[in-house]
Amino acid sequence: MDLARLALSLETRLSRKLTASRAAHSRSVAELAAALCSSNDLQPQRGLVAGLGHDLCKEMGRPTQEHLASIYQSFSGRSLEGDAILGSAALHGPAAAGLLLSEFGCQEEDILEAIALHTLGGPEMGDLAKIVYAADKLEPGRAHVDPLFREACLAMPPDGLFYAVLASTIEWLRSEGLPIAETSFALYGAATSGGIEA
Ligand SMILES: [Fe+2]
Ligand SMILES: [Fe+2]
Fold it and tell me: In principle, which of 37, 56, 91, 152 could form an S-S bond with 47, CB 3.0–4.6 Å?
């Protein structure tokens, strides 16, 4: 697939369909994900496309998101019910993966996975998905992120990067008294119990 052309189409879509602040966030995630791909021997365009596409459905109505998510579910065979994504705000991830499939003809599995799992993470994520998850939480527009923490994270390989950002997200949710998704908590538990090397 011509990823440069796809990135241009996504750019146009961002400008037309998303609020200015969400479009700016998406571009910032895309830039950071592309840079992280470069430093980890992945094609930067994969991070760019995933970043540009990851929040495309966030402002859509729930029925449309459910429909698009079901397209991704059929393509990937990934269960969305099992990890409670269907009932949560994280639905916009799989929905955006469905949008890339159905409207942009993108069948690049790693890119679709990265988009689908960007909010909560998921089991057996590839490096691109780990990078995009982290870029979404660390992009420079996230004013609450400590610059030293960001800098330290960006020097880590995808596994360390992902678990550092996951741990910090969970700590923040706890400190704010906000609910923690089961999927994210299970990944965090596996890392801290030694099941996964953080
Ligand atoms: Fe998102
Ligand atoms: Fe985002």
Answer: 37
